[in-house]
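Deliverable D2.4 — example input (structure tokens):
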């Protein structure tokens, strides 16, 4: 059973940056497709970015390309999300998730493990 714990959220002004981190226990991240999703108030949870050791490379939602960067830290067994040039519409709870899929997947139902989320609020 994989446990995921997110950290790094907070209140930031438009144009600012944050680095979110997802720490895993009970499993090795290299065995999963790891992703970040977000859910804004009143909206469905949406895919943001994914990374896979096995598949190699990353995958991003079009809305965040060029501003968000997903990366891994093998030593710490974490997956990080660097968020730059934050906009008010980036305000959401950000979730880390792990999938046993063998290809990059973007649907909530395709992920097997979830963290509890970390709040990101972008406001002046």
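Example output (designed residues):
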């Amino acid at each position: 059973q994989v446990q995921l714990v997110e950290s790094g959220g907070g209140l930031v002004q438009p144009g600012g940056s944050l680095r979110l981190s997802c720490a895993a226990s009970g499993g090795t991240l290299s065995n999963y497709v790891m992703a970040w999703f977000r859910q804004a108030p009143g909206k469905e949870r949406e895919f943001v970015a994914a990374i896979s050791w096995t598949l190699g490379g990353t995958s991003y939602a079009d809305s965040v390309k060029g501003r968000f960067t997903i990366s891994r830290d093998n030593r710490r067994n974490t997956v990080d999300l660097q968020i730059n040039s934050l906009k008010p519409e980036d305000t959401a709870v950000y979730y880390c998730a792990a999938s046993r899929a063998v290809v990059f997947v973007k649907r909530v139902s395709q992920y097997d493990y979830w963290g509890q989320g970390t709040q990101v609020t972008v406001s002046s």
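The CA atoms of residues 3 and 10 lie 22 Å apart.
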